[in-house]
Design goal:
The complex is a heterodimer. Chain A is of the alpha/beta class. Chain A has 3 domains: 199 residues, FAD/NAD(P)-binding domain, CATH 3.50.50; 139 residues, no CATH class; 139 residues. Chain A contains 17 helices and 20 strands. In chain B, the strands form 4 sheets. A 6-stranded mixed β-sheet of chain B has the order 10-11-12-9-3-13. A 6-stranded antiparallel β-barrel of chain B has the order 14-17-16-15-18-19. Chain B has a 5-stranded antiparallel β-sheet with strand order 5-6-7-4-8. In chain B, helix 2 packs across helix 7 and helix 5 crosses helix 6. The longest helix of chain B is centred in the middle third of the chain and has 12 residues. The chains are: A alpha/beta, B alpha+beta. At the A-B interface, helix 2, strand 5, helix 4 and strand 9 of A face helix 2 of B.
């Protein structure tokens, strides 16, 4: 039977769409099937309350690869990024710290807490930029495979080793620290002020079920420094119209190259004949066939739900089951009738970037402690943004959107994950109570509230165990081991089935890299 | 010594960077804060408000005003309707550009001209035989430009004008806070734009009214640095940067014709005689020797040159206006770029250039000089269509 499509991509998340766009650009006939009514997966904008356009899940962008923007001409297709101008930390004692893009202003802010840290801060930024520059060639290429004896792989390893040695001994040492240490230990090597270290260390735990003192979190910190906007590392931006605009721009590019994209088209499972993926089966039993099937879902969902254990060998199933997901965060989205007013700082200039609720290291560790024993944090770490300040299109005039990333909210609460819905309200209230310690009248300004627990992230957005990265970004789950060793190059043990999402190298965030690298790998190796 | 504009009490207070420069003899804000990014993004995502008082303004009145302007301008001003504004340029007898600006028609016999440079004497020299009076109102009229996607919403809130029916390049009288203004749908950013004109004495009240109305629409006071980037994105030519007024040039090579400056579309040749007509007819027949075009600079080649030094690509976040030579791929110089900017919106490195005609066609691959780690190199630059950025809201 003739195949209608060269490739079917399961899931219209941003990586699935990037993959589709690259395949379509190369002349392949591509079909994207998205379960929900709207494209984007976790990079999605929805008008949840009239006039309020929420970035429902992911809310800022930095890691999205600049060359993908160029190659897919995403600016032409509607992508617009607006930089975050600051990082604001309110403190319970009425003090606060704001880090700005203006370096001298930042120096003066930090020096109120430590004159030494204030001067080291730019040095740290420079060192991290060098790390990010080195990391760039790793994230912009398929993971090198140290177990392979293929000449091309050996050459790549050799080149990387050369580059690595080129960093010089200080930075080589730093790279090792980043791969092994905890975020806090790593920052302790540089800084003395806890007021500075606390908000910096949280980059090491985002999306991870670890604490700032847990080894391995320094890498996650680096992961958040690798982003690049207009040539500047460590810069973050809002996507105009919400993060869904990124997905729609990619979808526009894919369609312009001839890809077909269907929403409200859930796939029930991958059709496997004689050990090969040959198509997908819809819930009503309809089959759509293609030469290649590409999964934009996480590894757990791909193999255990779409393929089925019976089609895989036991070792592989065990590895996939051991792949750590354990979501640790939730999301609270608020529509408010005025700008939030922090009691520790007046005005709104400090709301043009992100706001971190993490007043100290012990605060963060305590928050993690509660999560370790199956509860959400009574006083969680919150990363809050008010995108409507810089992008008035997302809320009616004078009104605002507050987006809160909340950690820790473990998927496996002690009552069992399926009991999250009963605790959802309490979780939301905890977040608002926490914020009210800094924004006293917040509750009375709320017009609409959406609370997403890890359970909701799983049920609604298909993120298994609510993991926003399709799998933790811990060192043992990175590079040639993402999602498992031997299957880190987007191929799977099932012939003609590929992976293209955050569960593969180089991982999560609105990055687009897995989708791009998967597509290029398929094209290069004749996989599609 | 520059003088303060009527908005100075406001702009000076807000300009925490104290970053001013001289614009036509006025103190003009370059950027209010240390960096101009916020102002740039306000232009593209909310609204930026910029003091444009330094533009030269002339009121042209009298029974022959229409005939006089048609005579001195390359465009047939007789076709201009009441409450319409047009963009055009004016030339000397040799067809060489003197300046460009807007011409507005209030009624049969009343017009206003805006210009980048003092133009009174040029108009005066050409008015013999026309029953017309020319009054320089530059120092009587204050003007702010409100540019960006929320500009219409802000003006709706601040004024009584019927803005839904004010089309692109039209104008309307209106009142703001009880005093009279004129609103023109014009600007220099290639976005949804308005300019508001009023006698000097109302300037600060106008500023306050707009800032107040704009509070919920993301309004930001903006300076010239941010506008410089937006005007490159819009592909607009600039007097004194991309070309020079024939009045100031020592040599002919330095002068430009409208056809060379990509302003040929403003020239109406077939009509009553006008200044420069004969020369422009000849120029049109022969075709210009060079053309003002857009260039998109290649990213990969630039990144590779930086990488050879172990550097990440460096992006200058300010617009530049130091001329840079342009070569053919085989190394012959065929023109020069006069301004450029990295576009944070388009994610492209843009330039505006004057290129010899055989090489000025869209899609031609040229090379532009760049400096990498103090060394002169060249990278690929593709001749591209202007405007680079042209959102539908501009005309909506």
């Amino acid at each position: 039977m003739a195949n209608t499509y060269d490739a079917i991509i399961i899931g219209g998340g941003h990586n699935g769409l990037v993959c589709a766009a690259y395949l379509a650009k190369a002349g392949r006939k591509v079909l994207v099937l998205e379960r929900r009514h709207v494209l984007g997966g976790a990079a999605v904008t929805e008008e949840l309350h009239p006039g309020f356009h929420f970035s429902v899940c992911s809310y800022v962008v930095s890691l999205f690869r600049p060359h993908i923007i160029r190659e897919l001409e995403l600016a032409k297709h509607g992508l617009e990024l607006i930089p975050l101008e600051s990082s604001f930390l309110p403190l319970p004692d009425g003090d606060s710290l704001c880090r700005w893009s203006d370096s001298h202003r930042t120096r003066r802010e930090i020096s109120r807490f430590s004159a030494k840290d204030a001067e080291i801060y730019p040095e740290f930024g420079l060192a991290m930029s060098k790390m990010a520059q080195f990391a760039k060639q790793i994230i912009d290429n398929p993971a090198p495979d140290p177990a392979s004896m293929k000449p091309s792989e050996l050459m790549r390893l050799l080149r990387l080793t050369k580059e690595f040695r080129g960093l010089g001994s200080d930075l080589m040492h730093m790279q090792m620290q980043l791969m092994t240490m905890s975020a806090l230990e790593f920052l302790d090597l540089w800084f003395e002020s806890e007021v500075l270290k606390a908000p910096m260390s949280v980059s090491g735990i985002i999306g991870t079920f670890l604490g700032v003192r847990s080894p391995g979190t320094a890498y996650v910190l680096l992961h958040h420094y690798m982003g690049e906007i207009d040539g500047a590392f460590r810069s973050w931006g809002f996507s105009k119209g919400g993060t869904g605009t990124i997905s729609l721009a990619i979808a526009n590019a894919a369609r312009a190259h001839g890809a077909e994209i269907r929403t409200e088209s859930p796939v029930d499972h991958v059709l496997i004949e004689h050990g090969q993926a040959v198509g997908v089966v819809m819930p009503n039993g309809d089959e759509i066939r293609a030469k290649t099937i590409v999964s934009g879902l996480d590894p757990n969902r791909t193999f255990l739900k779409m393929v089925g254990e019976s089609n895989l060998d036991d070792d592989f199933v065990t590895q996939i089951k051991r792949f750590k997901l354990r979501g640790s965060s939730g999301k609270v989205n608020l529509a408010v009738d005025r700008l939030p007013e922090f009691s520790c700082r007046s005005g709104s200039e400090h709301l043009r970037g992100d706001v971190a609720i993490c007043p100290g290291i012990d605060y963060l560790e305590k928050a993690y402690d509660e999560a370790k024993y199956g509860d959400f944090s009574r006083r969680p770490y919150i990363n809050m943004v008010v995108p409507s300040v810089v992008d008035p299109t997302v809320a009616p005039p004078g009104k605002h959107i507050i987006s809160c990333f909340v950690q820790y909210a473990p998927y496996n609460i002690k009552e069992g994950a399926e009991h999250w819905p009963e605790r959802r309200e309490a979780f939301g209230e905890t977040v608002i109570d926490t914020l009210e310690e800094y924004i006293p009248n917040l509750r009375e300004t709320i017009l609409f509230k959406q609370v997403l627990t890890p359970w909701d992230l799983e049920q609604e957005f298909g993120l298994t165990e609510g993991n926003i990265f399709h799998g933790e970004l811990s060192p043992e789950q990175l590079l040639f081991q993402r999602p498992t060793s031997g299957w880190a190059k987007y191929r799977t043990p099932v012939k003609n089935l590929w992976m293209c999402a955050s569960g593969t190298h180089p991982g999560g965030g609105i990055m687009g890299a897995p989708g791009e690298l998967a597509a290029k790998m398929m094209l290069k190796t004749g996989g599609v | 010594m520059p003088i303060p504009s009527p908005f100075h009490p406001r702009t000076f207070e807000l300009c925490t960077s104290l970053h001013f420069k001289d614009w036509a003899g006025y103190h003009a804000v370059c950027r209010y804060d240390t960096y101009h990014e916020r102002e740039y993004f306000a232009f593209r995502h909310a609204s930026g408000m910029i003091d444009v008082t330094p533009l030269f303004k002339y009121d042209i009145m009298g029974p022959d005003a229409e005939a006089f302007l048609s005579h001195v301008m390359v465009k047939n001003i007789a076709k201009l309707k009441h409450d319409q504004v047009t963009y055009c340029c004016w030339c000397d007898q040799r067809g060489k550009l003197i300046d460009e600006g807007t011409v507005w028609r209030f009624d049969d016999n009343t017009f206003r001209v805006t210009a980048a440079e003092p133009s009174l004497s040029w108009f005066d020299r050409n008015k013999r035989g026309y029953d017309v009076s020319i009054v320089d109102v530059t120092e009587q009229i204050a003007a702010v430009s409100l540019q960006g996607p929320t500009s219409r919403d802000i003006l709706k809130l601040a004024s009584d004008a019927d803005l839904d029916n004010l089309k692109f390049f039209r104008m309307t009288p209106a009142t703001i806070d009880g005093f009279d203004v004129v609103i023109t749908r014009t600007g220099y950013t290639g976005d949804l734009v308005y300019e508001i004109w009023t006698p000097n004495k109302h300037a600060c009240v106008l500023w306050d009214a707009l800032m107040d109305a704009g509070k919920t629409y993301g309004i930001e006071p903006a300076g010239l640095d941010a506008m410089d980037i937006t005007r490159v994105e819009a592909g607009f030519i600039m007097n004194g940067v991309d070309y020079y007024s024939a009045n100031h040039c020592l040599i002919e090579n330095r002068m430009s014709t409208p056809y060379e400056a990509a302003l040929g579309w403003t020239v109406n040749l077939k009509r009553e005689p006008f200044v420069g007509q004969e020369a422009l007819i000849r120029e049109k027949e022969q075709g210009p020797d060079r053309e003002f075009v857009g260039l998109v600079l290649d990213w990969d080649e630039y990144e590779a040159l930086q990488a050879a030094w172990g550097l990440p690509p460096e992006i200058c976040n300010e617009a530049w206006r130091d001329p840079r030579p342009i070569y053919t791929p085989d190394g012959r110089q065929v023109g020069y770029a006069t301004s450029g900017a990295w576009s944070p919106t388009l994610k492209q490195n843009l330039a505006l250039a004057t290129i010899n005609t055989p090489f000025s066609a869209i899609g031609t691959e040229l090379r532009i000089e760049v400096t990498v780690e103090y060394e002169r190199k060249t990278i690929k630059a593709m001749v591209s269509d202007k405007p680079f950025f042209d959102p539908p809201r501009k005309r909506s």
